[in-house]
Design brief:
The complex is a heterodimer. Chain A has helices at residues 58-65, 97-106, 115-118, 125-136, 143-156, 161-164, 174-185, 204-221, 232-238, 256-261, 266-273, 313-317; strands spanning 15-25, 31-42, 47-51, 73-83, 89-91, 108-111, 192-196, 224-229, 241-246, 249-255, 323-326, 334-336. By secondary structure, chain A is an alpha/beta fold. In chain A, strands 6-7-8-3-9-10-12-11 form an 8-stranded mixed sheet, sandwiched between helices. A 4-stranded antiparallel sheet of chain A has the order 2-1-4-5, covered by helices on one side. Mean pLDDT of chain B is 85; it is low at 1-25. In chain B, strand 1 (31-42) and strand 2 form a beta hairpin. In chain B, helix 4 crosses helix 5 (147-160) and helix 4 runs parallel beside helix 7. Chain B has an 8-stranded mixed sheet, with helices on both faces. Chain B is globular and about 70 Å long. Chain B has 12 helices and 12 strands. Chain B starts with 30 loop residues before the first strand and ends in a 9-residue tail after the last strand. The chains are: A alpha/beta, B alpha/beta. The interface between A and B is large, with 49 and 44 residues.
Chain lengths: 353, 352
């Protein structure tokens, strides 16, 4: 695992999300709360995966953290506290326009889903880099200097700057585009990188090289990561800690091993159980029937109750809160929102040593 | 209605060590490719997307094609489905070449071989209801007559793919369905024709993990209960392993099959360095395993350009086992290595 930069964790969390709600305006008088009451602390150097099915609010939360939501969306409650490079703590929710612009990319950057769409197809890659520097840097620098730095960034992700910089996005393969996008996100050395489905739609081998590069860059530049994925294999590989989201809520958090080996929420264990591993004999995955409830029609009790194999009467009446089961420092406590979380451990994948 | 394909029980009775040659496992192949080639002419030169493959799809069996994007999986599938005519070699349906088919035979082939596309958001017509989508083929091929019969057939199809209650779904439009439900409609549409072979091109890769397994189980039931043969294309080896456990995997690289054999053997004991790299690159859903798993390091991450293929073995610029003098001069043929396995490699030809 990545060695944490010494002394920095002691200063407290880098990102502290407290009771955040993210909502969308759906009509003149109607609103929808897509993410509800999410809290977690991310310490410097940590890598956290947000997992869950589509429509669970993962991307909405990720966008909300940087206030990148579409016009109809807002962070309607809570605080997103972020410790900036110079040491002061700000609430991203209340940053003024100009401060927000400086905050993005300098402090926290986003790698969007689908590298294909994240680049402007009519601009060369070098123009993306120049734009980024000019829009988010405090000082103006000459073009040659910026290009030189862009080249260094591309070399960091093992791309050939001479080939990539003058190219248009369509001239690059999917994997190259994704790597170029990561280099671009790191342009201003942010402390936090939010990645939305960084390897979805990539081939296995390309996926592998992106994973390796991210691991390497994290060791070198020691940034923190929050990445959104529905690929549990990726979470197992790239994350130190995992948060499971269901119906807009964080329903289980803990270290990667907590969730993969000692899951306490039946949804987490069902998700993990539905992924067939490649090594070894045939493992018959358990299907997870049905889909998540619509966010505007949540059942009164636990939102997972209608699909849960361990449902009891109590579950349909009481909505469980996220409860700490195994306290640890640095936000690594194992917590689950299940009334039966104290019961027997759920079998996930016990077979491996 | 129409003639049912012969029902077949699963080969659960035949234990693994007794695996026989491919030809006598499950009767003659329904669909075969023989030396099938597809060369696209482009301004930059000819692109040999598929450079001669021999594949067989048998009733109730799965043939899984895996490989990176651009290795010719989809082109192979399109040729097999008769959607693209091969520029060389041929496609055989029940032993007869597709080229010689008259109008009627071609209609029969179209009915017997069905295609499920990757993206259920693009493959369903947004202005047609589920009912209209499902029954278009039935009416076109004259398989059901009269309102009552057509409606009953549509309901049966939806029940078969577990979209219940079926009546509720018949009059919906695609935008009212989730991704998983749409893909089930696409499967039901393929089933409407009572096919002998289903060609599924990355049919589960767009779906959430939870839905993926249940759709694979639905497809598995068709394979086992109705004896439908599958040509299953995926880049997800875990899916390939689960769905094609009793069948075969063919690994494609730059338009050629480089390794082929029974699924458990190919996945658990890959011989070709490319297959090894693929298997070792998979992210395992287990944090301990992920950190200890041995990874094959390729010499280069880039796939060679199809218009400018390397000399000798196509894989040699990336291969970790590359031997100078042999791999870069002579193309290794795809040869049988025993145990029904085919391999195209100079270096890794021995067992283990």
């Amino acid at each position: 695992m990545t060695p944490k930069p010494p002394g920095r964790a002691a200063d407290g969390p880098l990102l502290s999300v407290r009771g955040v709600d993210v909502g969308y305006r759906t009509g003149r008088r109607t609103r929808l709360t897509a993410v509800h009451d999410v809290s977690f602390d991310l310490y410097p150097g940590q890598s956290m995966a947000l997992v869950g099915e589509s429509g669970c609010g993962k991307t909405t939360l990720g966008l909300g953290l940087l206030r990148l939501l579409p016009r109809t969306g807002t962070v309607s409650a809570g605080q997103v506290l972020f410790r900036r490079k110079r040491g002061d703590e700000v609430d991203v929710r209340t940053l003024a326009e100009e401060d927000l612009r400086r905050f993005r990319w300098n402090e926290a950057a986003m790698v969007f889903q689908g590298a294909m769409n994240a680049f402007n197809p009519v601009l060369r890659v070098e123009e993306h880099f120049l734009d980024t520097f000019r829009a988010h840097e405090h000082t103006r620098r000459p073009r040659a200097e910026l290009l030189e730095e862009s080249a260094e960034l591309l070399e960091m992700v093992r791309l050939d700057p001479a080939r990539v910089l003058p190219s248009h996005p369509h001239e690059l393969s999917g994997g190259m585009r994704q790597r170029a996008l990561i280099a671009l996100a790191l342009a201003l050395r942010p402390q936090l990188l939010i990645l939305d489905e960084p390897t979805t739609a990539l081939d296995v081998l390309t996926q592998r090289s992106v994973v390796e590069q991210l691991t390497e860059l994290r060791e070198r530049l020691s940034f923190s990561m929050v990445f959104i994925t529905h690929d549990l294999g990726l979470a197992a590989e790239l994350a130190d800690r995992v948060g499971t989201m269901y119906a807009g809520r964080l329903i289980e958090t803990g270290t990667t091993r907590d969730l993969f080996h000692r899951a306490r929420h039946p949804y987490t264990s069902a998700l993990i159980g539905s992924v067939p591993p490649v090594v070894g004999d045939l493992h018959v995955p358990e299907p997870l029937p049905g889909g998540p409830p619509g966010i505007d029609e949540l059942p009164p009790g636990c939102p997972f109750a209608p699909r849960c194999p361990r449902v009891t009467e109590e579950c349909t009446a009481t909505r469980p809160e996220l409860r700490v089961l195994h306290p640890r420092d640095e936000g690594l406590s194992h917590a689950a929102a299940c009334l039966h979380a104290d019961g027997a451990e759920l079998s996930t994948r016990g077979g491996h040593p | 209605m129409i003639e049912q394909p012969p029902r077949r029980s699963r080969p659960a009775t035949s234990p693994a060590p007794e695996r026989r040659g491919p030809a006598d496992r499950a009767g003659p192949p329904v669909l075969s490719l023989r030396g099938a080639r597809q060369v696209f002419s482009t301004p930059r030169g000819d692109v040999p997307a598929v450079a001669g493959v021999d594949l067989d799809v048998r009733p109730g069996q799965v043939l899984c094609l895996v490989g990176e994007s651009g290795c010719g999986k989809t082109t192979t599938a399109r040729m097999a489905a008769g959607l693209a005519e091969p520029t060389g070699g041929e496609v055989l349906y029940r032993g007869a070449g597709l080229r010689g088919f008259g109008k009627q035979e071609r209609a029969g082939f179209r009915r017997a071989v069905q295609y499920i596309h990757q993206d259920p958001y693009a493959s369903l017509n947004p202005v047609r209801t589920v009912y209209s989508t499902l029954t278009a083929g039935l009416r076109r091929h004259g398989l059901a007559k009269g309102r009552e019969q057509v409606r009953r057939a549509a309901i049966e199809l939806l029940e078969r793919v577990d979209l219940t209650p079926a009546e509720d779904h018949l009059d919906k439009y695609p935008h009212q369905l989730s991704g998983g439900q749409r893909q089930r409609v696409a499967v039901a549409r393929a089933l409407a024709m009572d096919p002998e072979v289903i060609i599924a091109d990355e049919s589960t890769s767009m779906l959430d993990v939870s839905i993926r397994v249940s759709l694979l189980n639905t497809l598995g039931a068709l394979r086992d209960d109705l004896g439908v043969g599958f040509c299953f294309i995926t880049h997800d080896l875990a899916v390939a392993k689960y769905f094609a456990w009793d069948g075969e995997i063919a690994v494609m690289y730059l338009g050629k099959v480089v390794e082929q054999g029974p699924t458990p053997d190919v996945i658990n004991d890959p011989r070709h360095p490319y297959t090894r790299a693929l298997v070792s690159a998979v992210c395992e859903p287990d944090p301990d395993l992920a950190r200890t798993k041995e990874r094959v390091r390729l010499r280069s991450a880039d796939i060679p350009d199809l218009t400018d293929l390397p000399s000798g073995c196509d894989f040699h610029p990336r291969c970790p086992l590359y031997e100078q003098g042999r791999c870069d001069t002579e193309r290794p043929p795809l040869v049988e290595t025993g145990g029904r396995r085919l391999l195209a490699c100079h270096v890794a030809d021995g067992p283990g």
